[in-house]
Amino acid sequence: MNITNVGFLGPNATFTAQAVEALFPGKENKPYRTIPACIDAVENGEVDVAVVPIENTIEGTVNLTIDYLIHVKQLKIIGEVIIPIKQHLMVHPNNINNWEDVQGIYSHPHAIAQCHKFLYNHFPNIQPIETSSTGAAAKFVSEHPEQNHAAIANSFAAKEYGLTIVKHDIHDFDNNHTRFVVLHKEMLDLDLVKENTGDKTTLMVTLPSDQAGALHQVLSVFAWRKLNLSKIESRPMKTGLGNYLFLIDIEQRMDEILIPSAIAELEALGSGVTVLGSYPYYHI
């Protein structure tokens, strides 16, 4: 597939921008303000693919990404990249000497949650202000030097927006990574020069009925075929309390026998099955 432009959660120097650069160096990148806007851009043909966050080691699934894909725009996952996340506290150079007295701290909700201990210990009286991305937070602080505000973002954002990092690595846990998925309107092969770490197939499964053992039946379909599941997660179907669908990651690409036969058995049991993607993943 010849990819010429990539949509991502902007502005520049977000973690998503890092993910784009890791997979698509030198391509034309188009920042969007929100995750739904990125997904819509693919659907509308504004960009070839979009790169959006889907899961973080500390904060778990990015529900907005999952729910928008399932309930609004059913694009296909054609790739995944995992990058390390390092959060830093940064201020405008005008406020370096009094950064400990900042009046506001801005960042994306996940970044704020990832730095809970630091914020609690150093700024217990400040309620952090949520922004659409870490890059947006850095951009805001850079544009308001007269206000003693800080942003939580990465080192690329500090460089991009002329901010000074006053505290490095303020995230609560060192093993902090985020998964980003590459989305396209069709299930195509992502042909990159970079060697992939492994392969996955992601299914969306609805249970046949609300009965004892229904989920066990679904899981046994994969177990006896020795299909390794790296993740299973429930999400509300939004049709009523207690109604859930399941997202299942299988640690291999779609083949000609095992996964198709598993899908056929699930459907024979009365489950609904949608293939969200079969794709390579990369660990940076």
From TrEMBL:
Keyword line: Amino-acid biosynthesis, Aromatic amino acid biosynthesis, Lyase, Phenylalanine biosynthesis
A molecular function (GO) term: prephenate dehydratase activity
EC number(s) per entry: 4.2.1.51
UniProt entry tagged with the keyword Amino-acid biosynthesis: yes
Limits of the Prephenate dehydratase domain: 5-185
Tree of life domain: Bacteria
Pathway: Amino-acid biosynthesis; L-phenylalanine biosynthesis; phenylpyruvate from prephenate: step 1/1
InterPro entries per the UniProt record, alphabetical: ACT-like_dom_sf, ACT_dom, Chor_mutase/pphenate_deHydtase, Preph_deHydtase, Preph_deHydtase_CS
Domain annotation ACT: ranges: 203-280
Pfam short name (any one): ACT
Keyword Amino-acid biosynthesis: yes
UniProt enzyme class: lyase
Catalytic activity field: prephenate + H(+) = 3-phenylpyruvate + CO2 + H2O
PANTHER family for this protein: PREPHENATE DEHYDRATASE P PROTEIN, PREPHENATE DEHYDRATASE-RELATED
Protein name: Prephenate dehydratase
Naturally occurring in which organism (per UniProt): Fredinandcohnia salidurans
